[in-house]
Fold these 4 entries.
Entry 1:
Amino acid sequence: MRYTLGMAGALALFWIINSGHYSPLLLALGAVSVLLVTWIALRMDVVDKESTPLHLLGRIGPYFLWLGGQIIASNLDLVQRVWRREPRYQPQVARLPLPQRSDICRVVYANSINLTPGTLTVELKPDHLLVHALSEEGIAALEAGEMSRRVSELDR
Amino acid sequence: MSAVLAILSGACLLLGSFLLLTGALGFLRFADFYARLHACGVTETLATALIILGLMLLSDSYLPPFKLLLILLFVLFSSPTASHALAKAAWNAGVRPRDNQGKRDLPLPAGER
């Protein structure tokens, strides 16, 4: 029930942001479409913890802030690598452990690695990741495991 | 106030454009497929974020910034997935990462071929 309500609430918010009209007719049409979509989603049996990750809501904000800082730092690093007279990088391939158990945390982890330029998830296997990085520091930072730990904490 | 906002917005747009250029330059200068994907990462994260931030500062009503924020969120969710799909497709097709001259294959972790 909470997932159904959560989904309907998110859809309603999405509709309001995209509409910007508040006449009774349009609001009623919006409500009808939100109900219709929620009903279809219920019939498809896709309303669950995975499609509506309410339990992540409180923790995802601080994580996004931290990730934003990482993204800015790694962008600056890559920019100075690109603009050198001889582009300087030492590519590395490494295997990283994947301690996250839930699918959603694995996806968040792999996507976070991809979002920070300089590291790239090549393969996602049940128990490990194959990562390509532009420098040894990139691999070392991931192996130190701060990102992995923060993602694991999302699900706790 | 609006003059300050206009200057801030201009600075964001200019910096974003510089990062777009950097992404394109890195794409051309790096030597192999995987390194080039990294260069595109600059374009799809910080450059996009700065340009959208610059546009948000320019809007004169309260709704467009939220729509721009949604666009940014969609880009930030879909672009890493897209680059992973590209990398995995290349890996499965037998493309292996090379060194920074694009000449020799990199050593792979034990068990990978």
Note: Residues 55 and 89 of chain B are 35 Å apart (CA to CA).
Entry 2:
Amino acid sequence: MEMVNITIDGQKVQVPAGITVLEAARMAGIKIPTLCYLKEINKIGACRVCLVEIERARGLQASCVYPVMEGTVVRTNTPAIREARKAVVELILSNHPMECLTCERNTKCELQALAKQLGITDIRFKGENTEFPKDTSSPSIVRNPDKCILCRRCVSVCNQIQGVGVLGTTDRGFESIVAPAFHHQLSEVDCVYCGQCVNVCPVGALTEKDDTQLVWDAINDPEKHVVVQTAPAVRAALGEEFGYQVGTSVTRQMVAALRRLGFDKVFDTDFTADLTILEEGNELLERVKNGGKLPLITSCSPGWVKFCEHNYPEFLDNLSTAKSPQQMFGALAKTYYAKKCGVDPAKIFSVSIMPCTAKKFERQRPELRDSGFADVDAVLTTRELAKMIKVAGMDFAALPEEQYDDPMGISTGAGLIFGATGGVMEAALRTVYEVVTGKTLKDLDFVGVRGLEGVKEASVDLPPLGTVKVAVAHGLGNARKLLDKVKAGEAEYQFIEVMACPGGCVGGGGQPLVGGPERMELEEDYRALRAKAIYEEDKGMPLRKSHENPAVQALYEEFLVKPLGEKSHHLLHTHYTPRVKNQALAAWREKNK
Amino acid sequence: MEFYRSHVLVCTGTGCTSSNSRSVISGLRKELADKGLEKEIQVIETGCFGFCNLGPIMVVYPEGVFYCRVSQDDIQEIVEEHFTKGRVVQRLLYHEPNTTVKTQEFNDIEFFKHQKRIALSNCGIINPEKIEEYIARDGYFALAKVLHEMKPEDVIEEIKKSGLRGRGGGGFPTGMKWNFAHKAQGDQKYVVCNADEGDPGAFMDRSVLEGDPHSVLEAMAIAGYAIGANQGYIYVRAEYPIAVERLRLAIEQAHKMGLLGKNIFGMGFDFDVDIRLGAGAFVCGEETALLTSIEGKRGEPRPRPPFPANSGLWGKPTIINNVETYANVTRIIRNGWEWFASMGTEKSKGTKVFALAGKIKNTGLIEVPMGTTLRTIVYDIGGGILNDKKFKAAQTGGPSGGCIPAELLDTPIDYDNLIAIGAMMGSGGLIVMDEDTCMVDIARFFLEFTQDESCGKCPPCRIGTKRMLEILTRICEGKGVPEDLENLETLAKTIKSAALCGLGQTAPNPVLSTLRYFRHEYEAHIYDKKCPAGVCKSLLSYKINEDKCRGCSLCARNCPAKAISGKVKEPFVIDPEKCIKCGACMEKCKFGAIERK
């Protein structure tokens, strides 16, 4: 690596050529404050908080975008710099609703932290504040543009990472704001509700739709039998809300917390993840054997499904008809479980705890009411669950370790790894291998499909079926790349896993927030750390293959009969319909015909 | 070839077109044909002469007679008198201000006499829609010379030695910029022309494009050769339809003649130019925002480094120069760097075009050698202040520039002197203000423009200019408080040092320079609640001086707010509650009885 010699605050340091002054300063132990900068996502030098002096450069420079060169001399802490940073943040605050105490992001706001860090105790420049309507049109995400500080992290993630592109800057000057084009609402554009924008927002301008009251009300209703399911990725991140290090799994305490919140039964989405593998695995074999539509593409990520409906309707027949684990759970809770436990399904209130904002949308899809009721009644994100636990006054660290309830709390490691990118693929391969070859799999770890590389490929020998080629994409930008390749005939696969969020569900839009400064602190990507926790837990599980889940086996014996059977078909499978691309534009055209 | 005994040049630039020069031309042609003179007198459409408020302008050669404000009704007389009887139509001649002299000849007019036209040398001389006329004035000779006789390095050296600096505002040495792009590695490089002229009142780029489009195309090709690019883009405002049309025509004609396109002059050099239209955002004149806009994105600046010379359009090495800069290039190549460097001051060579406007007798486009004093421009070329009022200040550099006070009238104008006195060259707007101008109000006015044109990307500009504007508005409304001055200065300094691009960094200039030279006016507004120039309405009150009032009732009859009452032949009174401070009474009063305080 080419190195250059630079001077920062009098310190002579050698750093790799081409890195930014911000990165170089951190190597020298100087933490320049930042706001719009977000590692690997947003590097645009817009907010002017990370200003430094560069010798021989005019004015102050944004260190997040200024490349070091041989001989660069940097000063990061002069009166002029301190005053400029402070004035810039004061200006941002002068157009910010000062509702910190009642803000969703109170104590977890990067602007708030910055104001404290810079020692701001007074705002010298007061004046008019911009006012925009709040966008509560979507079931998943609430936009509060009055709180937006135009850092554009959400714009970057929506456009560059996700390739969805519904957020951008509109209007100019003081009136400029981040919004969908022409100030449309999120529900009027092709937003897939993945929530990645929420994950990167440094303030309270983007939040999930809060459904906690709905759940409190159900719990408090003596007439209701409230069951809860927890998605695999939730347990690997929930602890962060209570001070645990990133990558700590808190499964058993979480179960205890849920029970103490008053849920009648605490179940696990991993159970239906195992079930998904049986249904989807058999669907794959069926399609391979009978010349069905290939590649088969997973459909458990609702953000991905909506993205596909808008942008790749030609692939809708490739999507697995198996419902997502959340929806399978919902359908079974109000049929199989209701019958088994003798509860009136009309009285069951089914809650799911998800790392995901799009699940809130998925719950409301009209296709997904096969139990005769809404399959799922409320979806909470990991963050919302943490909020409830805090409201209830629980000391999370002191909670005992408890077990999930039977029967829908029994699961295998295969169901658990659904939470990380490549997990569905790996779980499917574990089962499909044994079903096809009739042999026992020796090494259960398909490491080729693990990790954070954007698109992963692998081929697996499945005699007598032959070699199966698979691919995994996470993040919709990567999904787009992969599908375009398939579309162009440049690659051929039998099975593809797509997760809408980078890193898979561990990086979901409903997960605890990892702020800008924190991301710089962590030695490894926070999603990789959470995935690690999941794989560790998988390793320690007595059962690691979905088809070995005794509760799932019992489910087939008692109720479903066989995978892809008639009952499965009715309760566990669905179909998807094409959606208009550029909805807003299409609506406008229709109106102005 | 046909010979004519007389050539009649009529301006078809935007200014004269607006004052109907097109109908003058068609009327003239018809009248000449009717009189059978169409084979003797040739009518030529030209670009701008620069004296736009006198339009439509007509110059008759060989005498060089300068007619102004010619209308259709004058045509018969001109043809009859001038072209048939050989008698100059006196009443259409230019009347020199401050004198009784009517100047007949173009070159004798004070407005033109002190000018040195290089960038504008073809404007008002040739028909911009005929490439042959450009070629007849040695057009494309520089490109031929470059391709035949010079290596790219020689071209860069020539430009470097000439001392040419960017005419768009920054004043960066052009040759150095070309050299960076020449040295930058890249399979594809670009040459961009910044024709997104946005300073209110400035129209030199438009005039060059309308009057001499080939000079820009030729220079772009030369630049392409120098840096190793074969594609150029001209980013021009869509609000300049005539310029766009003439550019289109010029590109087409140059193509037909093999002066653009493949294998120019058979020397194996390819160069093409495309036009990109801007939608009128001021910030798109900032080079990185302009490039972003060409790329099809929202026109917003991006941080530098990397500079466009290394990573410009679509990440490729790119040079971006202003129209006026290019217009100088061909002349430097043809006449040599020594010729160019012999004009101007030590660090600012050549000439500069200014758009002269405001409270001045002669307004229009002028080109003067660098180092000309403001006094020469205002009094010799401009003919002095309107209504012979006192000169108060001149604003250079448009809304991002600064105000120069009367005591600095003798400063030789060049890049560095202007910066030193808190102003800037900018693209060359020059607005003259008289004693009736309130400097706080002027600062507010310019800031209103820049804050409205801020793209919104960085907080110092997006919010900072808004806050400054709020303070200035407050001061003008008489609601200013002592800490406003301190806050204004803090904001100005912060924005200047912290903003992302040139728009933001220069936006506080009008405030800083007026605070520097006219601080007492701010203080009068804040502490005394007075506007010394009598401009800020909220701080004014009108009163009738009882001793002077004759009770004629004229004021009362002209008051739109019915705020004045009284008995005829007795002193009238103004009701301050009803008075809207429009000043109509003061204007009408024949006895000077109305006082404004």
Note: Chain B touches chain A through 35 residues (CB under 8 Å).
Entry 3:
Amino acid sequence: MSGNPYQDDRGNKDASIVNPKGSGTLVSATGTGHEMHTQEAFLIGDSMTGGYGKSGPDILHDCTIAVDKGEIAVIVGPNGAGKSTGMKAVFGMLNLRQGSVRLGGEDITDLSPQARVRKGMGFVPQTHNIFTSMTVEENLEMGGFIREDDIQDTIEQVYELFPILRDKRNQPAGELSGGQRQQVAVGRALMTKPTVLMLDEPTAGVSPIVMDELFDRIIEVARTGISILMVEQNARQALEIADKGYVLVQGSNAHTGSGKDLLADPEVRQSFLGG
Amino acid sequence: MDFLNALVALSNFVLIPAIAYGSQLALGALGVTLIYGILRFSNFAHGDTMAFGAMVTILFTWWFQSMGISIHPLPTALLALPFGIVVTAMLLILTDRTVYRFYRRVKAKPIVFVMASMGVMFIMNGVVRFIIGPGDQRFADGERFIIRARDFKNATGLNEGLAFKTSQGITIVTAIIVVAVLFWFLNRTRTGKSMRAFSDNEDLALLSGINPERVVMITWIIVAALITIAGTLYGLDKTFKPFTYFQLLLPIFASAIVGGLGNPLGAIAGGFVIAFSEVTITYAWKKVAVYLLPESLEPSGLVQLMSTDYKFAVSFVILIVVLLIKPTGLFKGQSV
């Protein structure tokens, strides 16, 4: 109660003039001031707590990450904040001790990553995200391995999204440049026609020009109605295209808001965006 | 004339035997390289599984012979081969279920698999000797030669004869067919591509919905086919003796490593490199030299670099040299 001059207790003990008994102490919370919509979020990792292995230390502490349909959600934060871990938790590669993951209202907390792919989640790991010894086209074919129907149309769509891949279709994916490899990786994940696409640092190790182009492509993917959840090192550029941003610090939500709000927030700017 | 004689002698004693032997090694090495690529360990039980496959084929051959079934002039063993492959495939899948699957489930390091495969090797070794005995077995029948040495001499008028055995012809033709089918399977079919994907990047293959147990099972079936064919061809060409097959493990491993482990093309190239080195180094070159060199330079000795008893040393030396100089093998294989 400090800081409130009206609550100073000095001289307040004289029962002849004040009646200290029975006065109310209940204070109602003010709330966050904005609605979170976690109930209807398309994909949500809700208050997740957990770590690697059966008994590893907790890395995530009550962390919540959600993305709506057709939106781009970006997870940013300092090194070791648990950004990639948070994404892996949503994809079922981390042992959760608390919390749940829901996709379209269905609880998928106990499903394996493979089962989640069949539910419509696509995942692009940070490294080793392509079949290096196989051609670009074979990479895409393998991406659509679980599909029983004709995948040729989807391959065409991927080529339309990433025209450079059409020219390199018969080249081993391992011989491509960093940016092109990322395009193959994203293309491979798109082959299952996912409803959610998860990208773990898609622009790691590519030049700034290629990075801008990749972001453009990601926006294009989001426009087709696919939700995108992305971990990014390049926080500023990522937040610029983000509908929703999560700043994680030590495995917990530190700041949450729309990309623009976070970019405008002086505290976020100072701590994570370098002023 | 002398030059032609030299060429014929060379073909008769070096080229044809080396090509046939190289084909057998290549088939064996393809199996090793597939297991290395997909199950990620070197299978020490390979030689003895080969003996098992050949043994089953021989038992079926004897059975067919006793019933009077034959495909003359081809050896009856070819007819028995599919049955041998099926039984060997069943044995390999059984081995996988009882031994290797457990280690996959507990995510054991590949070295644990290697040690387990040695145990499998000893058991397989015992099973084969228990069933068919340790001695030599004859099962070849049908026409023995495609070209006889005497006919060749009469037809061409050369001093040197050229003999081309049926078993050698069958070996070369079968190897070409098997390799063509295998490459078509790996590069063109969905299942084959999924195997390559699994070998390339297991995690990503899982995320793409490829079922690892299915990939592993198909690998064992292909390996069963490859080694039963290789074992039977070797038995037809030379002789069937369990211990010889165990010894074949060294040149087969050498072939797979020389070519680049995990690379099917390398396995074939490696097989021929090893076969040609073994045959040329242990061959007595005197005959060829006499035809080619002037009389004054005629060699007095056999001009044999190494006795045939030491032929395994050749594979060993090549193996060591390759590991020292180019550990990934001639073709781009996975680093050893």
Note: The first strand of chain B starts at residue 145 and ends at 147.
Entry 4:
Amino acid sequence: MNARLGPTAAAALTVLLAWLVLYPILIVVADAAAGGGDAVTRFVTRPGEWGALWASLWISLASVALAAAIGVPLAFLFEWLEFPGRKTLGSLIALPAVLPPFVGVIAFLFLYGESGFVARAVQAVLGLTRPPWRLQGAGAILLVHAYSMYVYFYLLARAGLAKLDASLIEAAQALGAGRWDTLSRVTLPLLRPALGGAGLLVFMAALGSFSAPYVFGGGFRVMTTQIVATKLNGELPLAMVETAALALVAVVGFAVLRRTEGNDPLIALGKGTAPRRRPIRRPGVRGFATAAGWLFAVLLLLPHLTLALVSLVPYGSWTTETLPPVLSLGNYQRLFGEPERLRPLVNSLWMATVSTFAALVLALAAGALIGRRRPREAAGRFRGAIETLVALPWALPGTVFAIALAATFSVSSPITLRWVLVGTVVLLPLAYLVRNLPVTGRAVLAGYRQLDPALEEAAASLGAGWWGVFRRVTLPLLRPALAAGASLAFVAALGDFVTSIVLYTYDNRPISIEIMSSLRVSELGVAAAFGVILMVVSGLVLGVGARR
Amino acid sequence: MRLLARVTLLVLLTSACTGDSRTPLVIYSPHGRDLLTLLERRFERLHPDVDVRWLDMGSQEVYDRLRSERANAQADVWFGGPATIFARGAHDSLLEPFRPTWAGAIGPHGRGPGDRYFAAYETPAVIVYAEQAVKPEEAPRDWDDLLDPRWKGKVLIRDPLASGTMRAVWGMIIERGLKHTGDTAAGFQWLRRLDAQTKEYVLNGPLLDQKIVRQEGLVTIWDLPDILLNRRDGLQLGYVFPKSGTPVIEDAIGVVRGARHRAQADAFVEYVGSVEAQLLATREAYRLPARLDLPLDSLPPWAREVRRVMKVADVDWDVLAERGAEWMRYWDENVRGKGEGRERAGP
């Protein structure tokens, strides 16, 4: 990169990101403020609002802890140990990510809900007269969050481990460090960017999570469901104040968590190769590890299987039986029989693809400008701003972000950079792009941070131009991070529900909206069939993304 | 990466190949696939140059969407939802005046101010029970029966905040108390007792139907057309018209302000209220026509039976339109989950 071009490009990128991410929110705040101070007073004086805010906060922190407790050990297991079935299991374990949020929640309901398979089976085995539990409240929300969000820790920690320099670990061991010392003083500090990034993603995802609290919350309110309830009741100014409060919590959380990520120049010099996987030698232990791995995989796959099963249940045929009495492919025939019904799938595919590409390009631009450990002085000044802007969309609940975009782009005023995009097919992919910035951005920035600048410098000194270095050195080195970020972003866009419900039009209605419509008209089987298709496509994409 | 590129190309090609020269007519409606598909096919047969496109969503959601699309209206017709929500829409200037020829055949409660909307159907709320577990003679006969200790923990309720039907029932209960005591406290006290009976507030209608059929709860309140459609499709749900009267929602239709295809929108509204379309909806999708000039013997037996046994509750819809939001907010904050002797759920 030309040294003089750096600061200009960084400034341009900052402005572009600010326009995409920050500007719509400011418009909403301004619109809400124009509505009067009455809403603020109501917000401050109601104990219910504070309760919801507190619930959002502690649920998010607990989600981070749970997701890390599951995801990080799994990453070590699959990156460091060799056992039969490791490769297959390693991809299977990322599968919770392929469950679209809303459909995943419905699958949980059919599985662990009080008339779900598991509850009925337990009831039958123990001879109980009442269902053994109810899937409701904070516990249920945390269960869903832990299940769906540990994947962030798992994938990012694996990507980090793959870049780990074995020589550092060997050096520590040669200097007499024990296993625990090596882990706590060498390996984990080296993983800090990856773990910090994952923690941040989970925290923001949990804070903005909507489907699980919506379905399982009952009387237990978090801020996202509180906002929707307020909005549905027509109190828009109050909803905007609630949104601002949530955004504030998110920004504070973001600032605190970002400190844990660290910026140690010693982190991951990335020379040399990752430690070789250690095969488990003792046959007993190996058999146990394999069996436990498969058992765990089956447990993780149960919601998917439930979905597949429900997609085979003809309408209204399954009532109080433990297992559905009739199975048929009728739902799939209905789905493929009417071309109008397939249209949403095509829509979702193109929107997810376009938005993912755009998000990757922006993330790469950000990475190239400010991602390195020692960015050029002038461009480095924009580092904080760009990083904050890239991460900000996670902090905002999807629905409200969508409303912000809708509000911003429903006015024609080119001078203030506003055009009428509401009702066009562009707005929804734009929203996906913005919402995907954090996941591609964190992955690519973490990747850049682990790059050894010496490699690029070597290529440049050997005569490669900027493009040559980027294409033949930087890009290949970034591939694991790019693949992880892109696949997660694509899958998130493909299954997005909360943004879509506000911004879709007839011409670009995505598959999640079609699932919602099917649910609304009682076609649970068709909805599940759509869910299965979505799951398979997502699975293929994530499979490609996880392969190295 | 290369895979993504290929997918993009494929998708762009397929989406470029679909073209349709007909005029699109976009309808936002909570009426569901059965009725909408039916009317879409018939209307397109009458108007071959029009492509009817409908989007199905909750009635409160339609209002929400129209409000956020005000600057660049996407919908042409708003079809379905209680007249109380339409009244708010009219108040927010979301509707265009249009007077169809059948306007005179609609009762006074079903006509919006300034011809902005008219009732197309009448949708009664009913008490619903699980037919496999409750005998018809044991089912609750009236609203107050729902408070019987027999049903403690057996009542399921569709989350009333998002549902036009439930808002109407809640409004009726509160207005009833208001009439007898001059205060809303009586109604909220009743709702508090119902809350104590309630096992769960359910996300949407279909989940509610499923949960009742699977006997997670035994009784609930829901709208009649949905129950009749479900019965036709084999779900074992029984229903009762409350003895003291049930709120009958005026399910309205109107032209969206700033509609892009105004002429087609007018034609569709005109069609929905035509005798042919009214009878079609009644016969095939269990809708009670709002037109008062249809001869009784042209209605199918089920509709005549409903007209015979159903007692309509006296609800002041204007009061409900005006104070409904405030009441729902109060209920949400002070009643939901706080009924006396309620079994606390949660962690």
Note: The radius of gyration of chain B is 21 Å.
